Amino acid sequence: MLDDLKDLATSPWAHWLALLLLCLAYLQGAIDKLRDFPGAIAEMRHFGLRPAAPLAAATIAFELAASFMVLAHVHRWLGALALASFTVLANLLADRFWKLPKPERRLVANAFFEHWGLAGGFLLVAWHDLGGRHVF
Predict the structure, then answer these.
(1) FRET label pair with 93: which of 12, 46, 77, 117, CA 20 to 30 Å apart?
(2) Which of 50, 82, 43, 47 shows the shortest CA–CA distance to 64?
(3) Are 76 and 53 in contact, with CB atoms under 8 Å apart?
(4) Rounded Cα–Cα distance for residues 44 and 31 (Å)
(5) 102-129 vs 12-35: helix axis angle to the nearest 10?
(6) pLDDT tens per residue across all 136 residues of the chain
């Protein structure tokens, strides 16, 4: 029974599903921005990013390209490191919970630390893809 579970968890499709789940937020974000490009521009302006339209377009292209790299195993490690870096930068820009009043702070703080976990997942993908070995 335990061996069956281990075989299932280490199957190629489970590995790809895990990668898809890691990339899903970026794929959804890119598709959402494509469907509402004026909203994507407004989001860039909200965070003080200028020029907003080219940055929105670049973000869409980046999210799609880096996700493709991870999912298609095309320099997966590079796509994973790019998404980890993007996540950290976007997190520091968008989820500044320490600047919010107490009632609003908890939800944004949760999102802040969840994004660190997501970045860590991408670091593990890069580490594994580059041949990392267990040290613990």
Answers:
(1) 77
(2) 82
(3) no
(4) 16
(5) 130
(6) 888 888 888 899 999 999 999 999 999 999 999 999 999 999 999 999 999 999 999 999 999 999 999 999 999 999 999 999 999 999 999 999 999 998 899 999 999 999 999 999 999 999 999 998 877 7
Distance, CA of 39 to CA of 98 (rounded, Å)? 26
Q: For residues 78 and 85, is the Cβ–Cβ distance under 8 A?
A: no
Q: How far apart are CA 81 and CA 132, in angstroms?
A: 14
Rounded to an integer, what distance in angstroms lies between the CA atom of residue 94 and that of residue 130?
Answer: 30
Question: Contact, 70 vs 129, CB < 8 A?
Answer: no
Decide: 29 and 39 in contact? Cβ < 8 Å: no
